Amino acid sequence: GKTDKLLVTVNPILLTSIVVLPETMSLFVRESDTFEVTAYYNNDTTKNVTNENDCVYSSSDDSVAEVVSDPFAIAQGWVKAFKAGTATITATYTEGGVIKTDEILVTVSAVGLDYIEVEPDEVTLRTDLLTGISQQLEVTATYSDGFTSDITSDCDYVSNDSSIAIVDDNGWILAKGLGTTTITVTYATDWVVVVPVTVEVVPYSFTNTQPVNDLAVGQLVTTVAEDGDWMVWTFDFPVEEFTGDGNLNVGLIIALDGEGQGPAFQI
């Protein structure tokens, strides 16, 4: 019989390239979008390798955008935008010792701010002047996509009259004296809200047996206590509350120290 030979050459299937689509992506802050990574081989076949363990991703600026996991994206990847700017997402796929890369250019635009809201929009501090009374303002920004954000610590605060109320960098208002003033809240220069502030007294009564022969109703009196100078106001005492012996039996007296607060001082 006769024999013959057939030479068969088997070429390995090799990875030749990967392609990420889309090539570019435009997002607003907080938006996400999908992409796919396709591997191409020397036998003209392709394979989706987006979520293969050997396909890894990096961002040139992950504060702008990065690839995030999504349990519902079986054959797709997700890019999440965080702040305005540009970032390049690089996909790197390794198979059979061959490494291939491709990129997506991601452009992130800022979302427009619709308005800011300050709560409460009007402040009334009722104080007995025994302790400092305070109230915090809370500021919320609402954006054109409906997203809201607490921006309280990002605002600037200014009191129009620090003798009545002061305010710190976190929006805490502290009563310093009686009267009305305003707190101006400013965010990013262009957004301004003015909050009216009223500081009023919660009066209290006590019995006083010391002589007040020269004290008239509503009179402003200056006296000296052990801790220093005090100003004492009297409010609307009926005449009959002054007894014949010059003593004040019951009344409403408010005492302030130099800082606008302090315990009541009995005359």
From TrEMBL:
Residue ranges occupied by any BIG2 domain in the UniProt entry: 14-103, 112-197
Pfam families the record matches: Big_2 (PF02368)
Leader sequence segment: none
InterPro entries: Big_2 (IPR003343), Invasin/intimin_cell_adhesion (IPR008964)
UniProt name for this protein: BIG2 domain-containing protein
Organism, as annotated: marine sediment metagenome
